[in-house]
Amino acid sequence: PDYYYYYLVLLYVYYYGVSFSRTSFLSLIHAFRENSSSSSSTSVLKGAWIPVHVKGKRGPCARRGMSVTKVGKDGDVVVFGGEDEDRRYLNDCWRLDFKTMSWVACDENTNALTGNSSEDQKEKAAVASVSATFVTPAARAEHVAIPWGRDKMIIFGGTGASFKCFDDLYALDVSSGKWKAVSASSSSNNNVSKTPLARAGHCVASLKNDRYALIIGGGNNQNGVLETAILDLNEVKWITSDDENNPEFMKFESPKFVGEGMSAVSFESVDGNESVLMTFGGYNGSCGNDLQVYKLPNEFPTRGTTIAKETTTTTGKTTTTPSTNNNNNNNNKGDGEDEKKIAELHHLLTQAREEANQIRADARLVVDAHASLQSKLEHTERMRVDAESLLKSERKIKAQLNDKLERLDRENLRLRERLKEYEGNNKAWF
């Protein structure tokens, strides 16, 4: 019956925060109906993979374990690092320019070491970290790359020579081609930087309008990494939870199954208030096919109004110690009022942060619109300069033609005078 498909679509909308038009809503219902009624069909969407011809001979060599990231307002794809067929780790960086459909060296290191073909690049990229004089990450694979701002990206972790795992952060400015080592601070109140554990084969998902990056799973060549790291991309700091020193932020619970090569994807409502995280697969001694879903609290990553310390029993239930006298009752009453005030302040703080996030999102739109207008203005200015140059050139040609015309007129008058003289001489002769 149709209400069954309505129910499926409404569940989809609730969990993933997707909005549909009436036509899209009915189309999705039809897709659910067709998929469930056709036993021979293996996919709701019918399409075809097609090979894409990339112009030029330059470009990344064959590899695996690299990162592929969409960066910049034009949505160009950036490929970094990986491991080639000879098990050599790479640190070259390439950008696929969709306007020309060609590979472009994306950083100073690759631009200095690139050859005329992918094979030349394959030989040179493997020794990039030794021969280059530019700031560049060590050659690595199985890292993650995160879009950052308008035209930057950040990489974290990975594994390289001697099977060493990394815990460093590097940022690439795609517009200038320069790398920079990033030193992220910590949210811990004891001012001790808590860098996440080194790892490789981890996954990353962005939340809250791409402000927070959740780095999940991975391994360190010994076992799976249970720690989930949270990076605040706006303030460039690691969000750490410590009940004693940092009670403001919640402790994020890692999936039950974590390992290398797992994948994660996030779904958010339009306003960014509701978020769902989904992970799948991975390797931790054996391959897994666990599909794990986690609905984040609306206050993520803060604790919201839950700030008071609680005592947890072995059964997981929270208990409160009863008071024994009137003084304790009065103290408990005062503590309750204080906690209520603190909860209200934290609620106001959460609202202020949400408003700040919205302001940041609006500011990004304004900055992008300004950049687009600036680009159009520069293009118009170039067209104006070209037009003025062309007009100046045409005026110069016109002046040259006028000079030549005047010379021709003077030469014409001179020839006419000589002709008259010649005719006069001929008459005198006869």
Task: Note the topology.
Elements lengths: L1 H15 L5 H16 L29 E5 L4 E8 L5 E9 L4 E4 L2 H6 L4 H8 L2 H4 L12 E5 L3 E5 L12 E5 L4 E5 L2 E2 L16 E5 L4 E5 L12 E4 L4 E3 L23 E6 L6 E6 L10 E6 L14 E2 L5 E2 L6 H104 L1
Parallel strand pairs: 9-13
Antiparallel strand pairs: 1-2, 2-3, 3-4, 5-6, 6-7, 7-8, 10-11, 11-12, 12-13, 14-15, 15-16, 17-18
Task: Give a verbal description of the structure.
The chain has helices at 2-16, 22-37, 108-113, 118-125, 128-131, 326-429, and strands spanning 67-71, 76-83, 89-97, 102-105, 144-148, 152-156, 169-173, 178-182, 185-186, 203-207, 212-216, 229-232, 237-239, 263-268, 275-280, 291-296, 311-312, 318-319. With 430 residues, the chain is an alpha+beta fold. The chain has a five-stranded mixed β-sheet with strand order 9-13-12-11-10, with no helix packed on it. Strand 5 and strand 6 form a beta hairpin. Helix 1 packs across helix 2. The longest helix has 104 residues, at 326-429. It is elongated. Mean pLDDT is 76; it is low at 14-20, 38-44, 116-120, 123-132 and 305-328.
Short characterization:
The protein is of the alpha+beta class. The protein has helices spanning 2-16, 22-37, 108-113, 118-125, 128-131, 326-429, and strands spanning 67-71, 76-83, 89-97, 102-105, 144-148, 152-156, 169-173, 178-182, 185-186, 203-207, 212-216, 229-232, 237-239, 263-268, 275-280, 291-296, 311-312, 318-319. It starts with a helix and ends with a helix.
